[in-house]
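Q: Could you write out the predicted structure for this multi-component system? I'm mainly interested in how the pieces pack against one another.
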Amino acid sequence: MLDVPMIQTRGFHNRAGGFDVRVRLPYYRGLWTSLIEGATVSVDGERHAADTVEWTIGDRDFTLAELTSSRDARWPVDVPATLHVSRKEPLAIGLHDVEVELRVRMSYIPEELQPTIWSEERRLVITR
Amino acid sequence: MTNGGYAYGVSLYSYTSEFGSTLTLDDCIEDVADMGATGLEILGEAHVEGYPDPPTAWVDSWFARLDRLSLTPTCLGSWVDTRRFGSRPMSLEEARAQLETDIRLAARLGFRYLRPKLGVVTADLQPDPVWVPATEQVLDLAADKNVVICPEIHWPSVIKSKVVDDYLAFIDRTGTAHFGLLMDTGVFQNRGHGRRGGTRSRLGDGRSAPPDVPQVPVADLEDILDHVVHIQAKFYEIEDRDGRLHDDYIPWAEILDLLHRRGWQGHLSSEYEGDYGVGRAADQLRRQHALLRILAASG
């Protein structure tokens, strides 16, 4: 079961070489992943550009280039994606201000009003 | 329950802010049946597990649930994402393949109508011209599968427009019985509704503003009603004022009067697009169905 916000409470962890943040697609349908332009992740004001963030959706791992060039991969609306962020030091146990900006290209909206950009900040707790 | 030929349905789009978090697919469909609706509309890319090829067990449970709840599948929402391949446009072959995939899925799940949402190429929402040959090439498949393809007339499009004229010309030219129009009642809104809640979003980097759309009179619907095969009964908020139900945005009395007078047959498939919030869709859908039933009984 997912949290209502885009940024999920679960899945915020340190791991070897960085940390993970879990997000849901804040949209009403799933998407071909090639429609995703990327997600920028900031933690406590430290910004990680979209092309440095790697993705896991279901059991498939992607760099941003792989995500946007895939012809068959999908991001279902009820399946969260894990964003892998590289970082030299692990995040300290406790509170962190996490911000995610997700950009998606919609085909049915005039091009001058695209991409659609979702942004959200949440204060999350990291425990490990 | 029918009223002069139309029946009440619900689109699961209505539960967007809760699907996957506070409501499962089962919960949503149970809710539709509980309010007395008979038609069920879903979005292939949202509600079908493993879209576009759901597991057999999922399809079996889909039909078992419909049977148990006495629900009829009405319209399957689909997309022709013409910007799917980055900077290059979608080819005719790719557009046709997308339509074929969704026609087959619609038929597999028992849907009579397929609503492809087409990618656009202009600020006034002209669809990518690839829709014409791609649709023409799948008409035989649609006939074989008994599916009617129906692009929607949806705000900010208006009825008197080149977009709709082109759809009507397509029907005239091909003589097909497997292409029609889906009318979204948001087109008739008296005023805009600012949706509250949900993840903050914006369209583009602020270089352009959304269009200023003229109000569309319900009378315009009369001109095209013979080609309207499905109605998305879009609404934003049904208020409880002085102990009565009111919709200050969509002129339901006028719409229902026209449908009654013309004996329109099909489903009014409710599509709640109001404020986000846990429990809101279930309550607002019931308010709308009650309002429609009250108006239908007094009309």
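A: Regarding packing and overall arrangement: DSSP finds nine helices and 13 strands in chain B.
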